[in-house]
Amino acid sequence: MTRILAQILDLEPGDLVTVRPTKGLRQPRQVPVVEIADSYLGAAVYTDIEYLSRLIGEEYALTGVQLKVEPDQAARAEFNRRLKQLPAIQGVADRHAMIQSLEDTIVLNMKVFIFLLVIFAGVIFFGSILNSSLVSLAERRREVATLRTLGYGPWQIGSLLLRESLVLSFFGTLLGLPLGYYLTVAMAASYESELMRFPVLLSAATPATTALMALVFTVTAYLFVQRSIHRMDWLAALQANE
To answer: Taking a C-beta distance cutoff of 8 angstroms, is the pair 14, 33 a contact?
Structure first.
């Protein structure tokens, strides 16, 4: 039994469930739940064909057959064409075509949504780093001007602000990674239904990519701050009243 169906019926392995067959003897039978299986598509129950035949009083009663065919696309298409010509077969479903259709609709839309989400998150991250750096520079104009008079160059002064931004980005990324993971889990749970579920798969490259993007945005924001340092009138900053 799939996990989603077991959760709906509040069943666990070892529990008995009443089955009412729609074919054969059609007598209610109590059968045990042997195992709970994870499945992300549909809510199904699986059993041994001999056991099912004894339940409904028919010998090898079948409603569907799953076949493993050659991976060659032309051979698979020819096989499906011949199956559809058999009058005893009501329908043929190609697993490869179903997966392709799923990728062309749901997966593609999900990728577009994730791409836009990453873009907006990057803009917000870049804007927050840039804003905090510019505010920090504006509050320290006099200190920056003092460092210039002491012989420090613009790049040396900018490196101090860059280190501060890198430290803030580092701790922000550390806090954001677990929060982002739990947000993803919550979003996947909100899309769950009886017919479809979305597993949350986290690869080792995901945190590394996030950290790399944070570094790129931080350095990009630093370039704007460095430009402001080069253009700063440090003599006017020294003469300004606190």
So the answer is: yes
Residue 109 structure tokens: 């839309």
CA 30 – CA 16 distance, rounded (Å): 6
Report pTM. Answer: 0.62
Tokens of 36: 């709970």
Strand partners, 188: none
Rounded distance, CA 138 to CA 161, Å?
12
Contacts of 87 (CB under 8 A, 6+ apart): none
Question: pLDDT digits over 59-76, tens only?
Answer: 776 777 778 877 777 888
The answer to whether 33 and 1 have CB atoms below 8 angstroms apart is yes
What residues does each domain of the chain span? 1-63, 69-93, 96-239
Q: How many helices (H) and strands (E) does the chain have?
A: 9, 2
